[in-house]
Amino acid sequence: MNQISEYFIYFFESVAFFMALFFFIQFSILRRLEYLCYALYLLLLTVYYLLAIPELFFGIDYNDKTSIAGYDLFKRPVQFLISVFYSLFVTYYLGLKKRSRPLYRLFNFLLILYTVLSAGCLAGNFFGIAYDPYYYFISLILFPVQLYVVIALFKYKVPYSNYVIWATIILLLGSTVTLLLSLYQAKNPAGIINNANSYIPVMISILLDIFLFAVALQRKIADNEKSLINAAYMRQQAVILERERIIADLHDDVGGGLSSIRMMSDLMAQQLPDDIKKGPLNFALKISATAKEITQRMNTIIWSLNTENDTLQNFVEYVRQFGVSFFENSSIQFQSSISPSLPLLKELSGVQRKNLFLVIKEALHNTLKHSGAQHARVTVQIENGGVVYIEVTDDGKGIEKNNSFGNGLKNMNKRIAEINGTISFESYNGTQIKITVPLN
Q1: Residue 310 CB coordination number (10 Å)
Q2: Phi, psi dihedrals of residue 274, rounded to the nearest 5°
Q3: From edge to edge, which strands make up the β-sheet containing 333-338?
Q4: Would you call 278 helix, strand, or coil by DSSP?
Q5: Left if phi > 0, otherwise alpha if psi is -120 to 50, otherwise beta: which for 194?
Q6: d(Cα 62, Cα 52) in Å, to the nearest integer?
Q7: Distance between CA 86 and CA 34 in Å, rounded?
Q8: CA 167 – CA 87 distance, rounded (Å)
Q9: In this structure, are residues 431 and 419 in contact, taking their beta carbons and an 8 Å threshold?
Q10: Residues 6+ apart with CB under 8 A from 42
Q11: Spatial separation of the C-alpha atoms in residues 116 and 73, rounded to whole Å
Q12: Element (H, E) at 431
């Protein structure tokens, strides 16, 4: 045997073994059975050629029939086991159970056939039964069977079957050339073709098969990722459409109804006698105030659901407008401050916007109702490249223990915790509420 042939066979065994390890790792990560079957297929190939070419790997004289017999004991059983796992690989890779029942039944038949042949060869070898004529006869029959498999794959057009078709054709060609070389070598033991050289054509075809599978695998993974992305996009679009429908319903139906209630209660209040109009029994004004508060809450919900508002710029502008409107008829002067370095186009989810706004609203409500302050300020800036820092301050009397703001503090803590942020309260020359929230 020349050195080039030896190096090629060593190269083939190395590639097959390491690719088997690679697909074992892929199976351990992805838990897909086609990877396991292909890994076992490659591993059995390496074992088979160790048994088929013992003179190269173990330094045994190929003409020493006694020594060779120990390797021949398992050679043919392993050969048919290789076909078992390759058939399993094709079944799982193409998803034949769901995509093509005729092909699924065909490959189940092949699995049973190869398993029986493997067990039969092993039993024949152990009990010393001479079955060579039957073995060669069955090998000849399997050739048209493999051709029928190719035709069936063409006929049923299962996705990704092109790879299996070409791989099967290449393997059939390589196996046929190897068989012819083996017959030539058996008739001419002293010729230029020896036992090891005769396997080189089928080894080349197997290497091509590995390459084709690697390409087909990448294509299938890419297609699966594309399908997942498309499915996620469609789900996202469905959610957006549903949110838009809810927004429209809230704005048109509920909002219109609340506006009508408020308008009618205002008209009713104007028609009441002066003693009731200015007294505590003016329920019309209370209804109007309640409708106004509910409308504002509903507008906040609509604002948080609208994905067009998912930016810091929209958030700070909404807070500023609310603050100006909230303190418009009070003695408190409101100011908002925005850091020049604030990334205004940075995304802020609807949940983050809603919770942050409701916390700021609660803080400003407390300032107006309890603090006795003259000034209130909301400051928004960015810290550490990805954390929003918000500070709500006033110059009032600070937070008093056991006041009516206690439940408000609990709600504020809960809302900030829901968006993985932090909040702290200080009373020094007024109230300082500091909030930090990481951006997505």
Answers
A1: 17
A2: -60, -35
A3: 333-338, 375-383, 387-394, 431-438, 422-427
A4: coil
A5: beta
A6: 10
A7: 9
A8: 12
A9: no
A10: 16, 17, 19, 20, 23, 210
A11: 16
A12: strand 431-438
The β-bridge partners of 383 are 387
**Contacts of residue 291, Cβ cutoff 8 Å, sequence gap at least 6:** 258, 259, 261, 262, 265
**Would you state the structure tokens that stand for residue 68, as one six-digit string?**
């060779």
- In whole angstroms, what is the distance from residue 353 CA to residue 350 CA? 5
3-state secondary structure of 337: strand
Which residue has 């070409």 as its token pair? 166
Please tell me the distance from the alpha carbon of residue 190 to that of residue 326, in angstroms, as a whole number.
103
Closest to 84 measured CA to CA, from 131, 22, 37: 37
**Chain-centroid distance, C-alpha 121:** 45
d(CA 236, CA 234) in angstroms, rounded, equals 5
Q: What CA–CA distance (Å, rounded) separates 45 from 20?
A: 10
Q: SS in 3 state form for 220-260?
A: HHHHHHHHHHHHHHHHHHHHHHHHHHHHHHHHHHHHHHHHH
100: left (phi over 0), alpha (psi -120 to 50) or beta: beta
Report the half-sphere exposure of 24 (CA within 13 A, side-chain side).
10
Tens-of-pLDDT digits for all 440 residues of the chain?
567 888 898 999 999 999 999 999 989 988 889 889 999 999 999 999 998 888 888 777 767 777 777 777 888 899 999 999 999 998 998 888 888 888 999 999 999 999 999 999 999 888 888 888 888 788 888 888 888 888 888 888 888 788 888 888 888 888 888 888 887 777 877 777 777 888 889 899 999 988 888 787 778 777 777 777 777 777 777 766 766 666 665 555 555 565 666 566 666 656 656 555 555 445 666 676 676 667 666 666 667 667 777 788 888 888 888 888 888 878 889 988 888 878 878 888 878 888 888 888 888 888 888 888 899 999 988 877 678 899 999 988 877 655 545 567 888 898 899 888 999 988 888 889 999 988 76
108-125: b or e for each residue (b if 16 or more CB lie within 10 Å)? eebbebbeebbebbbebb
Q: How far apart are CA 326 and CA 320, in angstroms?
A: 10
Alpha helices in 281-349 (DSSP H): 283-305, 312-326
Strands 387-394, 333-338: pairing kind:
unpaired
Closest CA to 200 of 51, 10, 5: 5
* Other residues' Cβ atoms within 10 Å of the Cβ of residue 248: 11
